[in-house]
Amino acid sequence: MTFASEISKTEKMARILILYSSTDGHTRKICDRLKEVIERQAHQVTLVSVRDEPHVDMKPFDKIVIGASIRYGKHSPLVVDFINSNERILDTKSSAFFSVNIVARKPEKNRPETNPYMRRFLKQISWHPGELAVFAGKIDYPRYGLFDRSAIRLIMFMTKGPTDPKAVVEFTDWQEVEAFGRLISQM
Ligand SMILES: Cc1cc2nc3c(=O)[nH]c(=O)nc-3n(C[C@H](O)[C@H](O)[C@H](O)COP(=O)(O)O)c2cc1C
Fold it and tell me: With a threshold of 0.90, does the pTM exceed it?
């Protein structure tokens, strides 16, 4: 690599914050994959859990990505609070939001325009993320406690999903995750 190309690479390097909310680790796994893809494009990624750092300083970052999973119909209130308290700064930066949920395993509900959680969420906040994505999540029955396992099995029974209490099923389309990573690199 020449000195000139090294400089132009440095000039284009962006600092990207990915703030996430993940209960069972799947959204975090998606964030890890995004980080891998984005860093391959020579940008710098910092991953922060909203639970660990609800007051993270966004000033040092050029782009902000927020990702959260759905539990019992909602994204974490910590994410909503974070967005509401930082709405002004969020709107000054390139930004993206993604939602992880199991309803998105259905092709007719796996896009920002067709996923009910994403649609409802966008009505609830004033921030306007530049890019949006919805990813299907994971079912991991052995990991859940009795109450959650029974509730999710019932919902899966009603919506024709997996109900075997030993089932561990990842519905995520990793190619879509990687494409979103490349989109974030370019935005
Ligand atoms: C207790 C519980 C409640 C859930 N509620 C919903 C729900 O209401 N709608 C939905 O689409 N997915 C729901 N899911 C599926 C999660 O969104 C999915 O498992 C996701 O991969 C979890 O990501 P996380 O590990 O980052 O929290 C639920 C999962 C659990 C364990």
Answer: yes
